[in-house]
Structure formats: structure tokens, C-alpha cells
Design goal:
The mean pLDDT is 93. 26% of the residues are buried. The protein starts with a helix and ends with a helix. By secondary structure, the chain is an all-alpha fold. It is globular, with a radius of gyration of 18 Å. It has one domain. One of its GO terms (molecular function) is NADH dehydrogenase activity.
């Protein structure tokens, strides 16, 4: 479970960092308070950022869902209190991610973003493999799980 979650984290976290970098390249600030209403000027970016945010909160059919579900099963089988603590941290992380997405993409358009441009084809194609990996590992996790199951005893 933990190895699968590390692989999923290795896909989703770079995707979110790339999304933040795309915003930074256009506006030269990482302060969240300057971003509001991005969906009005950057609709394609908002969709891609939504996919990455939903993967980060582990919605079904995303790679993080499989990893977090397996981790929850392992945590609850070890200790109920550990499972409750793990579940609570997942809910808090999901709330923060949704708040961040809502703050950046929705609301009245910030005056700082009036001349913003959406992502171009090159930027989208750079993110496409991450989107495919997020969805593919969420829909068909068994090849990776089997690879982990076969290889793990060799390292233990």
C-alpha cells in the first residue's frame, strides 16, 4: 500500500507543481490571494488543475484513491485509532485542496489576472502523460500492485 501511494504521489505532486509553475510564469507571484477567477481567463488550465486536485484528494479512478484506500485498509487492520487518525488527516488534506482550487479558479476575476492567457498546446502536451498516468493507475492498478508484490520480498 505504501509503495503504491509513493508512486501515486510521485505522479500527482509533480503535476501540481507544474500547474503552479504555469501560473507563476504568467503572473510572477505564488501568493494565492492574487489569484481569483482563473477559470474565466484560463479554462483549459482550470480543467487540468481540477484533474490534478481531484487526484490529490484521492477521488475514485485516480491513482491516489487506490493508494490511500489500501493504506486505510492496512491502518484499520493494524489499529482502529490509527485508522481514524489516518482518515482524519485525509479529510483535512481534501478540504485544503478543494479550498485551494476554489480560491484560485472561482470567484470574481482578480484585477491582476485580466491579461492572463491559457495554457498552450506544448504546455498541455507536457501535462498529458501525467493525466494519463493518474487515470490509468487509478483504473488499472493491478499490474503495478503485482509488480510490487513480486519484487518486494527480494528487498526484505
Amino acid at each position: 500500500a505504501s509503495i503504491f501511494l509513493m508512486v501515486a504521489h510521485g505522479v500527482v505532486s509533480p503535476a501540481l507543481f507544474i500547474a503552479v509553475t504555469l501560473l507563476y510564469e504568467r503572473h510572477h507571484t505564488r501568493l494565492v490571494r492574487y489569484y481569483r477567477g482563473v477559470v474565466m481567463t484560463m479554462p483549459l488550465f482550470s480543467i487540468v488543475f481540477m484533474v490534478f486536485t481531484l487526484a490529490n484528494i484521492a477521488v475514485p479512478l485516480s491513482c491516489n484513491f487506490v493508494g490511500e484506500f489500501l493504506s486505510l485498509v492496512a491502518a484499520f487492520s493494524t489499529s482502529t485509532s490509527l485508522g481514524v487518525l489516518t482518515s482524519t488527516s485525509m479529510v483535512i488534506a481534501a478540504a485544503y485542496s478543494l479550498y485551494l482550487y476554489n480560491r484560485i479558479c472561482f470567484g470574481q476575476l482578480s484585477p491582476y489576472l485580466i491579461f492572463s492567457r491559457d495554457i498552450n498546446r506544448r504546455e498541455f502536451n507536457g501535462q498529458l502523460p501525467l493525466i494519463v498516468a493518474i487515470v490509468l493507475l487509478g483504473i488499472v492498478p493491478y499490474p503495478l500492485i503485482e509488480l510490487i508484490r513480486v519484487c518486494l520480498p527480494r528487498f526484505m
